[in-house]
Write a structure and sequence with these properties.
Elements (H helix, E strand, L loop, with lengths): L1 H4 L1 H23 L1 H6 L1 H8 L3 H25 L2 H25 L6 H21 L4 H39 L1
Helix pairs in contact: 2-5, 2-7, 5-6, 5-8, 6-7, 6-8
Length: 171
């Protein structure tokens, strides 16, 4: 069971690497899409590799903390809820790409990793068969926490970007 649980940070980082590598390039090469969606415009204005890398690190550490908690206390339900929230995140990238009819950063890894994630979830549920109501409740709670953390990390990324932009101007 523990080996399955440790797939979460591995899958997470494989997915995030595509975003780290491609997001800035994509934002710069797709101004028509960025200008059409205010949230993308805001992301572009507040983007720096330093800020984005910090946000990914924070989320990665959260993944590791969730796995450690699940392994140590055998609280598999929180792991399942968080991993389902992450799988929903993968599905969102696929939907985003379908809506704008273009590649978006992380869609390739999402297409590859979503079926893998579903298989991991299925196997985990076979080994720790929680009632569906508990899994749905944990998933909803984890999605809410994930969204709140994402909003918070965008604020942090903005501050980091501003700090680095000020440092660059002083040189």
């Amino acid at each position: 069971m523990n080996k399955l649980l440790w797939l979460f940070p591995v899958i997470f980082m494989l997915h995030e690497l595509e975003e780290i590598i491609g997001l800035r390039i994509w934002l710069d090469k797709n101004p028509d899409i960025v200008n059409r969606y205010p949230l993308l415009l805001k992301i572009r204005q507040n983007f720096s590799y330093e800020g984005f890398a910090f946000a990914v690190l924070e989320q990665y550490l959260c993944c590791i903390l969730i796995v450690l908690t699940a392994v140590y206390y055998q609280w598999y339900l929180i792991w399942m809820g968080a991993f389902i929230a992450f799988a929903i995140h993968l599905a969102v990238h696929i939907v985003q790409s379908a809506i704008i009819r273009r590649y978006v950063p992380a869609v390739l890894s999402s297409v590859i990793l979503l079926p893998v994630s579903m298989a991991v979830l299925h196997e985990t549920w076979q080994r720790a068969p929680y009632p569906a109501v508990q899994i749905i409740t944990a998933s909803i709670a984890c999605v809410a926490v994930m969204i709140a953390n994402l909003v918070f990390m965008h604020c942090v990324m903005k501050r980091i970007t501003q700090k680095f932009n000020l440092s660059e101007r002083k040189k």
